[in-house]
Amino acid sequence: MSVETSLQSVYEPVEHHWFHCEQQVDCKDSWFPFSREDSPRLEEAHKYGETRGVEEMVVATEGRRFDVRLKERRRYAVYWEQPPSEVRRCSWFHKGDKDISYTPYPEHTSLILEEAYMISVTLNDWTRKLEFPTGETVVLHSRMLMTQQQTIPSKYWISFPSASEQSRPRTVKRGLEGISIEIPEGEPYQVDHLVFMVHGVGPACDIQLRGVVQCVNDFRDASLSLLSSHFKQSQDGAHMGRVEFIPINWHRVLHGDATGVDEDIQRITLPSISRLRQFSNDTVLDLFFYNSPTYCKTIIDTVASEINRLHSIFLQRHPQFTGAVSLTGHSLGSLILFDLLTNQEIHNTDEKIVSSKQLTKCTSFEETLRNFGLGKFFQMLTKEQMDLESLTLCSETDLKDLGIPLGPRKKIMCLTGTSQPVPGVPGVYSQVQEQPTLLSDAPSTSPVDYKYFDIGIGQVSIVYPQLAFQPQAFFALGSPIGMFLTVRGLKRIDPKYSLPTCKSFYNIFHPFDPVAFRIEPMVVTPGVDLPPMLIPHHKGRKRMHLELKDSLKRVSSDLLLSISTLRGAWQTLTTLPVNTLPPVASVGTTAALPPQESEGSRAQNGTVSPTEMKNISFGMLNGGRRFDYVLQEKPLESFNEYLFAIQSHLCYWDSEDTVLLLLREIYEGKGILL
Fold first, then answer.
1. Is 653:218 a contact under the CB 8 Å cutoff?
2. Per the database record, which ranges form the DDHD domain (predicted)?
3. DSSP for 2-24?
4. Pairing outcome for strands 92-95 and 103-104
5. Is 419 a catalytic site residue?
6. Is the pLDDT of residue 555 over 80?
7. 590-633 pLDDT, tens per residue?
């Protein structure tokens, strides 16, 4: 036997790679490889379980968002509801002429193929045919050439297959060598920041009608890509990990069986234009549900409880996490978060959060008052034989008769729930007035009343739950917050006001978004027309069509200025004789000189010069910084803004410019810059 033949007869075991299955929109199963970090860990755990006889091994994968149960061969989502998907330990693959990618064989089929391959290599016998009960025949021609022939039994024929269909083989591959498949590198283990993302109206979030989970997955993938491209130097210096994004789904609970709202709406829905009415019931009605005293509490409680629950799960799975947490809301989701954050409570100098539920857990009435800075009124109230329960029955008039000053009275009214702070107006409280309500017997709702502001129409009065953390930043995407505040009667936000537990706020919108509204004009001095901050393109410059538009504006502006100057000079030459001198200025006066162009005279169409910008106060919503940010429209969108209006409201989930802005603001707080 020659040396070449002996080398060819040496058998080497195949390297396995782990895959998971996901069902696509067309109901076809697609197999995706685990990352280069997760697959070796799965293989190591599999071998450990086999050698030690462990019944079940659970391996956290994909940034610890999924758990793989090796014995079940199933992959389970941790943070959201999703049907478990199949997992395979793959080594053999097949692909047809019309297939886009290779499909892994089942594990028991791969074992049979691997055993036959080992025998063929050892004996140098490449004439083996393997027939399977499913009608498939695999032929091992050589190490590099293996095919599969599909034989269709005659009893399953609908029509006689052509000779080409019968003879067209499928390509068979052993291992991943020679297969064009992209295996992800994996995610950094270290998590620097956690972001919860709340969706808007309806179950679909983007133009492809995908749910919030799929949209947040794409948002996360874009962040990983931008971290590796834009923060590469910092990442290589071991200062950076990644940002984790977790979706919050409240629509599923609102329209679930517990509330029964879908059945109630369906009973009164007209049968005509059924698809349009169904779309309206699933989406537009969410706005009315949020303004309902019954279902507003369901939505708010769902969002807050889900955020707190998932935050707790995240900390359990990432015990070494020391980063901060931020919130992001799209459309109606941003309004939900804004209302939730405006009703967070901070007491004492150490900013300890005290919720209404925690009040009942205090050891004494005195401790409750002390937590709210009302300890000096303990003796006065106990002298009247009052406790927390009787205090909740007191009106503001009763407290005034006791001699309690206005400030402490308002604190007590807020403590007992009979008064709540008006969003955006620090120190202003609104009285809760009892109104007759029509309530259903649904177990998931509770009686609530409407709250009326002194400054105009009000919002629903509910007991707002408290978050288990203080957010670092709040990002509103395509948000109607400004419109809702205006409709509620709030004409201007106090520049000194900031969200109680969140010191950074960003209002991000597309210029053609029909749902988005600005908020800065409600804070800055009335009459100041200030354009929003332009979000840079993720490739580092303005889009070309916007630069061209700005250049044309500058050229036209300079041309008009030149024409005006020439016209003035011509009038001067034609009006004054050549031998006439200008009159001598008298004492105390100055000669009339042509007006000089000031630093801000170039500001046109309401723009503000840099000097004037320094004197404008943007309030404390974002710590004194600007917070209205506008995306750059794409060249195609600029041709017809009406045509792309709906798409503009749904563009944020796959906008790399939006993702980069979030990353920049998050890591800027850590001292890491682009």
1. yes
2. 467-668
3. -HHHHHHT---PPPPEEEEEEE-
4. antiparallel
5. no
6. no
7. 333 333 333 333 344 445 666 666 678 888 999 999 999 999 98
